[in-house]
Amino acid sequence: MRLAMxxxxxxxxxxxxxxxxxGFDVVNVDSDETKVYSLxxxxxxxxxxxxxxxxxxxxxxxxxxxxxxxxxxxxxAKVVMIAVGTPSRRGDGHADLSYVFQAxxxxxxxxxxYTVVVTKSTVPVGTCRxxxxxxxxxxxxxxxxxxxxxxxNPEFLxxxxxxxxxxxxxRVVIGTNSSKAHQILSNxxxxxxxIETPIVFTSIETAELIKYAxxxxxxxxxxxxxxxxxxxxKVDADVQELAKGIGLDGRIGRKFLNVGPGYGGSCFPKDxxxxxxxxxxxxxxxxxxxxxxxxxxxxxxxxANRILSVxxxxxELKGQSVAILGIxxxxxxxxxxxAASLVIVPTLLKAxxxxxxxxxxxxxxxxxxxxxxxxxxxxWLEVEWASNPYQAMEMSEAAVILTEWNEFRALxxxxxxxxxxxxxxxxxxxxxxxxxxxxxxxxxxxxxxxGRKEILS
Length: 457
Ligand SMILES: NC(=O)c1ccc[n+]([C@@H]2O[C@H](COP(=O)([O-])OP(=O)(O)OC[C@H]3O[C@@H](n4cnc5c(N)ncnc54)[C@H](O)[C@@H]3O)[C@@H](O)[C@H]2O)c1
What we know:
The protein has helices at 10-21, 33-40, 51-60, 70-74, 98-110, 127-138, 162-167, 179-188, 190-193, 204-235, 239-247, 268-281, 287-312, 341-350, 372-376, 389-393, 413-419, and strands at 2-6, 25-29, 64-67, 79-82, 115-119, 148-152, 172-175, 199-202, 321-325, 354-358, 384-385, 398-401, 429-432, 446-449. The protein is an alpha/beta fold. The strands form three sheets. The chain has a six-stranded parallel beta sheet with strand order 3-2-1-4-5-6, with helices on both faces. The protein has a six-stranded parallel beta sheet with strand order 11-10-9-12-13-14. It has a two-stranded parallel sheet with strand order 7-8.
């Protein structure tokens, strides 16, 4: 069975490679010529553990190809998946569906019966219907339900563990009202029946909403623990123990109760916003989600101000220097979209603080830094990049752990103590926004973490 995957970003590339691994004939399409060129050279344009070898193996076996030629890939394909971006629309926060609709038009022009067109992108309720209308309008010779169907199959993979998430998902959600599409998509996911993955067949609208509701719920858990962390600090409680104490309740669960500087990434910020907009448009507001969005925006600003107030205890901000360890929104990805660092670093720079950054994927000499100002904005030109965490710490007033990369979990604390300048407390300062260290390990360091007692001895 031939599958055409339209869009070869985080989702399209991983999904295409995994379907090829299942044994299907996959053509991955992307409109970005440079991306397709690199993929055809065996170079993976994103960082995702295990992806390079999976792509290479499946290319060698002839089951995975990359092209910019959408029309050739779509004609003859039984399944066409749309996996293009759906970023926030400038100005109002609705999902920008222009890439999806453009892909739908291009698909329509090349469609040969019978094909299931599947939206894998995260799209608001009603989008699949709209895609079907586009195809029907542009191809009056084809009949929906006979020559083609449109189905929803949202993707739940997480960057950093995307292959495992795709191969061993908690569930697969498929929204369709066509028995033909039902049959074809069941066959596509048959390899997962062996590991007894629950496949939820539902209406198109419900499938579209399941994706947003899942992300909004997880975002809510993060915002919840972050606000409770602030309360812990006021009442001398410990947020780590609190999270464990509530998370062990099976109804609540321990996941997504890790305190931090606010959620980021390519999904939660834009998806909570888009869901809230849909709800307002339908006059059924989701006040909880509105509060989550607000709380998370405030969180990132508050974290930046927290660093500044720690530095202020040393005196004048201007001239002080901070080592930022980790700028990606989470470990094991190169994705910077909506990361907390994008609020924190520019705020520090604006206050006159010198910022030295080390991230395992963004470091002095890394290729990824070439267009960093275009990617993140001009203030980032002022950042000094380091080749390792210790170089960033040298002569800095404080080090801040922003992303919990493995290599920050076992910092040489002796070296950290000796490289950082001494603060107003006569101790070097380590600010840990991921609570990766135990407070008792921090003798001789002014250790500032979240929702726990500050250590000043
Ligand atoms: N990144 C994640 O972790 C994740 C997880 C689950 C769901 N999603 C959703 O999946 C969708 C894709 O996300 P992503 O992170 O992979 O996006 P991305 O920006 O990394 O990739 C999208 C790709 O689509 C290509 N593209 C756009 N229009 C095209 C067209 N007409 N023809 C061919 N290629 C085209 C772009 O060049 C780009 O390479 C989004 O809706 C997102 O919300 C993302």
